[in-house]
Amino acid sequence: MRLLLILSMFASSVLASKFDINTYSTSLEFAQVTHVLATQKPDGSWCFGTSVRHNDQGWEHYADGWEVIDLEGNQLGYRQLVHPHDNEQPFTRSQCNIKIPSEISKVIVRAKCNKHGFGGKPFIVDLNSI
After folding, report:
1. What angle do CA 95, 37, 91 make, to 5 degrees?
2. CB atoms inside a 10 Å sphere around CB 38
């Protein structure tokens, strides 16, 4: 019975479906990515300048990060946002040295807030068009 449970857990993680880009909220209660500028460095790593809009309300509710993920939902990079931006909306922050395997041509950038997590509209970046 224990082996069956372990195999079941393994199979469900291996057979996980692709990241669902069609389920999101446009409400500013969720952090929204409004623009992304991606640039590749000579060493092959990437920099992402990401603009985020959110109804920041001080420390109780603010956009606290954004991430770059592949189409399967695997995290490739993360930028922590360490304070509210009540009076700076939208705001842009960058993160460099993000390693993206060469076989990946599209990534998703999505933002989160400290109250609702992820849930805003994801931003798809086609790396081949850069």
Report:
1. 70
2. 19
pTM of the model: 0.83
Q: Cα–chain-centroid distance for residue 24?
A: 13
CA dihedral 48, 49, 55, 57 (to 10 degrees): 90
Given this model, what pLDDT does residue 23 score?
A: 86
CATH code for the domain defined by 17-129: 2.60.40.150
- d(CA 90, CA 79) in angstroms, rounded, equals 16
72, 18 Cβ separation under 8 angstroms? yes
65-95 pLDDT tens trace: 999 999 999 999 999 999 999 889 999 999 9
Place of tokens 């068009």: 129
